[in-house]
Structures are given as C-alpha cells and as structure tokens.
Hints:
This protein is α+β, with helices and mostly antiparallel strands and about 140 residues long. The protein contains two helices and six strands; from the N terminus they run αββαββββ.
Amino acid sequence: MSVMDVNEILGILPHRYPFMLVDRIVEMDPEQQRIVGYKNLTFNEPFFQGHFPGEPIMPGVMQLEAMAQVSGILLNKMSSKEGQIAYFMSIDKAKFRRKVVPGDVLRMEIQVTRMRSRMAVVEGKAYVGDDLASQAELMFGYGA
C-alpha cells in the first residue's frame, strides 16, 4: 500500500525522467521525521547501459541521489516549505555494501537527525530485501 504514488511524487520533486529515482512512498511520518520509499530497478535504467556492460550495477552516486530524492519529499512535507526545493549540499560517511542490479527493489529509509530553518541533515539507508546496500549522512539547504 502506497502513502504516495509516482504522480503525487511528481507534484513535489522537480526531477523528471531519466533522473526520477523514486517510484513510491510507503511510509511517511513528519512528526517522527521518517520516510520510506522505493525504486524498482529494471534493465532499462539508462545508467545500466554503461555501468557496466556485461555486469550492470547501479552506481553508488545514483543510490545516494535516490536517497536524496526521498529525503526531499519528507523535508518538503515537514518543514512548512512546500513548493520549495531542498538542495543536496553534502555527503558524509557514505558506504556501499552490496551490488544493486536490474530486478532489485531499492528500499530507502530516511531519518532526519538535525533540522534547522535553512538546513537539514538526514541518515539514509538503502536496502535490497534485508541486505543493507548503501548508507550515508546527507545534508540539504534551502535558498534564501
């Protein structure tokens, strides 16, 4: 059961094909500052064509971007900044633990760890099944 489908997501995020990396949101709790979203990966994803031919793997930077997009949805909903863009500012403590390949479903779990008026920091984890695929601390800022 989706809390938010792709059409609702398109109403919040400015991203579009081929850079939209969120298919649905299944949990969102602005009070607990937590969100869970999914990206269904198929062989047709543009990045699989060149990374790598013969052994397609989702680039780590794309996993981080997918987590950032899920984070942007939550930040937009919880910060009274609906309609504004949360700009991805920095990455810290990024770790990649397993390959993400065509056919996988990437589940991204995001928890806000710091929130201020013009910036936020989240802890993001991406899973395939029960296996941790990647994790990072992501920082976002809002323009003036």
